[in-house]
Each structure stands twice: as C-alpha cells, then as structure tokens.
C-alpha cells in the first residue's frame, strides 16, 4: 500500500497493493479492494466498497456497494449514494436515523467527546524545552 501526503483515512479497510494519492479521502466503513487506487483529491465515501483493480479518477467521488464513481459536480447522485448508507451521522456515530439534524448532532458530539476522553485518558502534557 502506498499513501500520499495529506491523504485522509478513517475507519476504513485497505487491501494490499492499493495506491491512495495526495489529498485523497477514504471515509468510515469504506473498503478498498486489492490493487485499487484513488487519484489526487478523490474520495471514497462512507460504506463504499471499491472492487479490486478499480481506479477512481482525479477528484471523483465513489459511493455505494459496489462503488459507483461520479465527478465532483454530480452532487445529487453523490447524495443519493450516501443515502443508501443511511446518512453520515447514523453510519459513523450510530445516531437515530429518524431524529432531526439537531438531535443527531448532539448525540454524535456526545459520543465523540466520550470516545476522546477514553482514548486520551493517559495523555501527559509535554512542555517544550526552553
């Protein structure tokens, strides 16, 4: 696997021989099949499954299972693909899909804050020399 600078990967599964270019984004629940690639600034959205040897072009966004690819201007098709995953906050944070946006945000922020506290409970302050 080769990952370029300023790429963003979170909660995803990356197989061997995958190339992720500079500035590419791979989101929660996404899976990159063997020898697949994401070009400069491309994105693989939540829950997307990229088959082996699939190449996502520069700046394009992949959504769905299996992946469907769209240029960045195809906003409605990208949104429709994200809707298949149930929405970002329910997919990533397990919020109630039927709740309004405010309720979903409060639940997501609460879960995120609690997770940060747990993961950083042993952190120590570092004082720079001088």
What do you see in this structure?
The protein is of the alpha/beta class and 130 residues long. It has two domains: 2-84, UDP N-Acetylglucosamine Acyltransferase, domain 1; 88-119. It contains three helices and twelve strands, in the order E-E-E-E-E-E-E-E-E-E-E-E-H-H-H. The strands form three sheets. A five-stranded mixed sheet has the order 2-5-8-11-12, with helices on one face. A four-stranded parallel sheet has the order 1-4-7-10, with no helix packed on it. The protein has a three-stranded parallel sheet with strand order 3-6-9, with no helix packed on it. A hairpin with a 4-residue loop joins strand 11 (61-63) and strand 12 (68-70). The protein is globular. The relative contact order is 0.11.
Task: Note the total helix count.
Answer: 3
The percentage of residues in β strands lies in 15-25%
Q: Quick check: average pLDDT?
A: 93
Shape: globular
CATH architecture descriptor of the largest domain = 3 Solenoid
Query: How many beta strands in the DSSP annotation?
Result: 12
CATH homologous superfamily annotation of the largest domain: Hexapeptide repeat proteins
CATH topology of the largest domain: UDP N-Acetylglucosamine Acyltransferase, domain 1
Please describe the biggest sheet, giving its number of strands, its sense, and whether it closes into a barrel: 5 strands, mixed
Quaternary state of the chains: single chain
| CATH C-level of the largest domain | Mainly Beta
Spatially, the strands of the biggest sheet line up as: 2-5-8-11-12
What is the count of distinct domains?
2
Whole-number radius of gyration?
A: 17 Å
């Amino acid at each position: 696997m080769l990952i370029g600078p300023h790429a963003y990967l979170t909660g995803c599964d990356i197989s061997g021989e995958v190339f992720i270019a500079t500035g590419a984004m791979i989101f929660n629940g996404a899976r990159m099949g063997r020898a697949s690639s994401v070009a400069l600034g491309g994105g693989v959205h939540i829950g997307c499954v990229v088959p082996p040897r699939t190449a996502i072009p520069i700046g394009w966004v992949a959504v769905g299972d299996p992946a469907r690819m769209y240029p960045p201007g195809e906003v409605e098709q990208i949104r429709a693909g994200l809707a298949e995953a149930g929405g970002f906050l329910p997919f990533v944070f397990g919020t109630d899909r039927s709740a309004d946006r405010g309720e979903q945000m409060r639940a997501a922020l609460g879960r995120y804050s609690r997770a940060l506290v747990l993961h950083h409970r042993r952190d120590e302050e570092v004082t720079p020399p001088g």
